[in-house]
Amino acid sequence: MAEESSGQEKTEEPTSQRLKEAREKGDVAKSMEIPSAAVLLLGLMTMYLLSGYMISTFEEMTRHYLANSSQLTVSTDTTISLFKGSMIYSAILLGPLMLAVMVAGLAANYAQIGVIFTAEKITPDIQEN
Predict the structure, then answer these.
(1) Structural element, H or E, at residue 96
(2) Residue 18 above 90 pLDDT?
(3) What's the CA gap between 66 and 8, in Å, rounded?
(4) Do the beta carbons of residue 34 and residue 112 sit within 8 Å?
(5) What is the pLDDT of residues 101-120, one digit of tens each?
(6) Considering the chain, what percentage of its residues have pLDDT values greater than 70?
(7) Where are the domains positioned within the chain?
(8) Cα separations (Å) of 60 from 49, 57, 67?
């Protein structure tokens, strides 16, 4: 019985019309390993190339906060100001790396499937119950 065909094997190639309809629905073959590898490689390359900049920015941030630590008073206003400053330093420090990783992920996905905008994959099917 294992040698018998289950009837689910495809014997003919899909027509161009079916391929077009499947693409419009968002049914395309896509590998998750390619974008993951691209993000990893470009992230590591970016960290290597920008390591001097990242280290000097982190040193500057640390010096700034340690030099002003004796003058800080804890209140709502100073806490919010300190938080805003920390977020700005963090954005300056990690922004280039995050941008490079985002571009790598988008480029790798675009290289595989191109641009597809469809809401059919995320639209809930009420009749499925």
Answers:
(1) helix 76-113
(2) no
(3) 68
(4) yes
(5) 999 999 998 888 777 766 66
(6) 78
(7) 32-114
(8) 19, 5, 10
Q: How far apart are CA 97 and CA 47, in angstroms?
A: 7
Dihedral of alpha carbons 18, 20, 21, 23, sign: positive
Q: How far apart are CA 54 and CA 118, in angstroms?
A: 39
**First vs last C-alpha separation in the chain:** 34
Helix (H) or strand (E) holding 100: helix 76-113
Mean pLDDT (whole number) for 28-35: 78
Q: Which pLDDT belongs to residue 99?
A: 95
**How far is CA 27 from each of CA 7, 78, 89, 124, rounded to the nearest angstrom?**
22, 52, 42, 16
